[in-house]
Design goal:
The chain is an alpha+beta fold. It contains six helices and six strands. It folds into two domains: 126 residues, no CATH class; 40 residues. The strands form two sheets. Strands 1-2-3 form a three-stranded antiparallel sheet. Strands 4-5-6 form a three-stranded antiparallel sheet. The longest helix has 24 residues. The chain starts with a helix and ends with a helix.
Length: 193
Amino acid sequence: MNLHEQLGALEVGVDQLIQAVVAPQASNIPETSAQAAPSQASALNHAAPARAQDTAGETAAAHDKAQSEAPQVPDTVQAQAVTPEEKPTLSIGRPSQNEITMTIAGKTVSLHPEQIGQLIEELSNARASMAPEPPMGVPRGWRFVSTKNPVMAVQKQSNGDRTLVLRHTGHGWVPFTFTPDIVIQMYAMLTQR
């Protein structure tokens, strides 16, 4: 399985997890976009009689294509209603060294190293824009994996800043940008005895 197929499998897995949580809630919404498509086609038919047959045919073909490409969610997943006061839980398992499983609301997805890397990257990008920020100090009891002598790359920016990219064995490539004064402070910290 190549990387694109694995990414596709991850997207389908994430879509299935989302469907497991969202599908029961969507049943309470009076009209979904799939239900709105026929009424929109009907409005187009009234507005442009010359194209009415083509528009309806295109709408039906697009709807059929979307249905065939949509991930198929088992009826049992859609039947699992989550009440507003009962939030779905996330559990993570590790059945083998190169695999983890994630279960949300009773739906389990298996992730392999490339998929886990993509998930870490997506979560990291999302977390960077959230509040509150991670603590400024190292939290007491924090568990971590340290990468000894990581592979690194440095780029000089036009404003004098330096971007240092380090390869962590768990997080992948992690970029940091430093202003010149911080580069000097970092050098002093790294060379003091």
